[in-house]
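Study this protein:
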Amino acid sequence: MNPRNVAKRLLPPIAFEGRNFIQSLLEGNFGISGDYPSWNEAVAASTGYDTELILEKTKAALLKVKNGEAIYERDSVLFDQIQYTWPVLAGLMWVAAQSRGQLNVLDFGGSLGSTYYQNRAFLRNLPEVQWNIIEQPAHVNVGKECFEDDVLKFFPDIEQCLSETKPNVILLSSVLQYLESPYEILNKLLDLSCDYVLIDRTPFWDGSTDRLCVQQVPPSIHPASYPVWIFSEQNFIQSIQKRNFEVVSKFQSLDLLPAPVPTVWKGMVLVRKKSFLGSVSIT
């Protein structure tokens, strides 16, 4: 059988629609590898990446989405149709339903608004929406210049965001695994006065310890490699429970990358235990 046809049968639609992704799969030149004892050693084994190049590619792609010239962007790549993460959208709508239609999102590491634009067709029917992105300074500058409006806002840190608004849900999509100290950031966010947290596109395995690796991005997207964590699911959930949060639902994300251990990319819906009423499942 043709390798491309095999890939099409095995991969989710979003992966196949990205032709660059398929080409890299067939060439075998991307994925996650290694087992590093420290962040510095993982950094030393990485090539790093051209932040400005990636930012410009993401800006160009999302401007096309914003202006109606393209349908969907993810990781700076344009696709022919939107591939929704339905549990995340359900979680957002669930929070809004419990807040009289008000949705105020703290999107930590949300790029230039990828998840917002992915779901805006549904969000625009809510009576009140504010989407706050916390990002690196260069992203914030581009965001404010090209994308910020009455709904979409950009901030360089958590403190400045909270000085201007009060989010009712935190979104962590494809971000925790790329932080040097992910639990420190996660704990800081869980300690905020926000009762709902949505996690998506995060790699987990069944091992007893977190594994520090290096991720090689498909060169046809952009030449880069950088440290990445594969989290021990049991340790991750225990850390959440220590902050008085309950896992309402777990779901599998669309991501699929070769890895040195059996890895599943997942998402979770979290609720602070004092707000957790009954057995609610969002799948």
